[in-house]
Amino acid sequence: xxxxxxxxxxxxxxxxxxxxxxxxxxxxxxxxxxxxxxxxxxxxxxxxxxxxxxxxxxxxxxxxxxxxxxxxxxxxxxxxxxxxxxxxxxxxxxxxxxxxxxxxxxxxxxxxxxxxxxxxxxxxxxxxxxxxxxxxxxxxxxxxxxxxxxxxxxxxxxxx
Length: 160
What we know:
The chain is α+β, with helices and mostly antiparallel strands. It contains four helices and three strands. The protein has helices spanning about 5-25, 45-60, 100-115, 145-155; strands at about 75-80, 85-100, 130-135. A three-stranded antiparallel β-sheet has the order 2-1-3. About 25% of the residues are buried.
């Protein structure tokens, strides 16, 4: 039985529009072309899929079938926020590229249930959650980390 939440649809649409406007304003271009893709990689179906995975786990239902969106390899993060003020409720992902279907299944549950900063998400919170999926592109090789370290020490910031 699929479980859908309209909040994820609204958040996905709003965040996608904000991201695209920010990109267009900064670069005077259209959709970024990365990893050989000429189309948007993230879709709202990914957020729906994350809700389906979490709901099936919390209600001890059969996991949903594999989704229809592409199953390419990318680093990814799944973020859960809660309430009208969108407080962080969990965020876990990987910088290692993995197939989207498997990665979303794994990191949906990890971010909702195993983020050490928060107690596990409960059934009662499910209707209050917002989900966002981050698929990382334009990934730079390790040698760029040295420059990042210099930038951080120059600005006296730290990487959490």
